[in-house]
């Protein structure tokens, strides 16, 4: 258990900078999720923390120690890999015990530690089996057992759930969270799945193109994205984007979208947006900020394209002013594909994005 | 329905297979026929292919010959130690080729393979003088050293493929578990590559077992000869009356190689073709 500090961390492969200027303070026992599309540098960052990748620039501290030049074994970390990386020629007990052999423990102590870990993960019955005789979920548990048995300062998870089917993934998500509650340890978890990031993290670190786009609690990054990338990446279905201009209409502000329709901007945003009058901007609205109804005094009619019933809700896809968009609808009131329906807009959830640098204008 | 062309192609394939099999099996069955004959029946030649009074006496006589057993032992020792040496020397090179990314890796791999193309005959005279200079003529150590060198190129390639098959992530996991490079190699990589290493060992042994030229040139004392050289003694003194013994000795000589290949053919073929197809 220790805090982890990444100070201006960078990694270059030849002339290609895979990761740059990573500044991140991870508190003791915090659960941090690095999330981003493939190639964004999240795994490289994790591998630098693990010591499997050299650090080209910056400083990495675990606890009070600068670990830049320490080997993985000297950093007191444990890692769970995407493909589990269980030693196929050892049984489960030997796999879990492998990391303890260097610690001057007696046989009895090692056995007790292995049993403890196995009990915690409910894999006692599997201790004599070889990895190939285990299911994906069981392998994942053994990999976690191998990590926790050493009681390391930091747990690292490199996309550990991506090889599991959807049901098992949801189950393991809960188990990892529960494990973190029972054995509080600083945890850094890498995933490309924003649902995993949102559901597991104390704080989410959204990465893109080798840099951090935003760090915040799951609800922070969802409700107040700092950039268009974050707004688009976090949340499913994705946020809707409409290009247009910010204009004054009497005393009020409106956002005029491509087809000439003007959407009213809440008055509270007036001062924040005043500098951006007349500029080309992008309006961002999450699907839940729209609704299929004519209840509000401002509606736009659209033709629905595709309807996706999910049971708990139905996602309705349509085009508005040349932009593909979606809205969540109650399953019993969902339209059919091809129907023309009225859309209401709740503009209190709006985001304005500067298309030049992709930043969300703060309000 | 198989098309007419398909049937023809199948017939042609089987015909070719039968021809090739016959090419190898006819001499072998001829050898079996001779080895089972009494000295008198040898004179019938091909006219009596299946002996009227088949006998195993010839094998007994050859195996009771202390000299013959000594030749077998020499052959086993030379081919076994030569193969083991090849695997031990090739392993670090193969590991480096498999795991480290360095400039000229591909070129060096090809260069090593190119050495394999050089016929032993071409280098025999310089090799003889060189071994003489080292004082290794007339010694088993000298022969084993040459076997090791001859076996190296193919062994490096085979072992590289075997190491390639061990996922790097397992070595990374061991590094995180606190193990250094060498310990990881010993505890993780080596055991997991052992099927490939065993195949390389057996293949080298089979190749060394049938080596004739090297021990023939290097060793002149009868007591040091492996069976492949000594068998020429039986042939060299051939008269009609010892042909049956020569045949029995030949069969005994090739039997270990054939048995080893039959028992381990799946492992050997998979080692030779590993990496050739994705599976």
From TrEMBL, chain A:
Signal peptide: none annotated. The keyword rRNA processing does not apply. Transmembrane segments: none annotated. GO terms for cellular component: ATP-binding cassette (ABC) transporter complex, substrate-binding subunit-containing. It comes from the Bacteria. The keyword Transport applies. Keywords: ATP-binding, Nucleotide-binding, Transport. One of its GO terms (molecular function) is ATP binding. It is found in: Cell inner membrane. Residues 4-234 form the ABC transporter domain. GO terms for biological process: carbohydrate transport. InterPro entries: AAA+_ATPase, ABC_transporter-like_ATP-bd, ABC_transporter-like_CS, ABC_transpr_MalK-like, ABC_transpr_MalK/UgpC-like, Mo/tungstate-bd_C_term_dom, NA-bd_OB-fold, OB_MalK-like. Its main location: membrane. It is a peripheral membrane protein. Belongs to the ABC transporter superfamily. This is Sugar ABC transporter ATP-binding protein. It comes from Devosia pacifica. The lineage of its organism: Bacteria, Pseudomonadati, Pseudomonadota, Alphaproteobacteria, Hyphomicrobiales.
Automatic annotation (TrEMBL), chain B:
Residues 72-264 form the ABC transmembrane type-1 domain. Keywords: Cell membrane, Membrane, Transmembrane, Transmembrane helix, Transport. It is a multi-pass membrane protein. The chain crosses the membrane at residues 7-30, 71-95, 107-128, 140-159, 245-264. It comes from the Bacteria. One of its GO terms (biological process) is transmembrane transport. Belongs to the binding-protein-dependent transport system permease family. This is ABC transporter permease. It comes from Devosia pacifica.
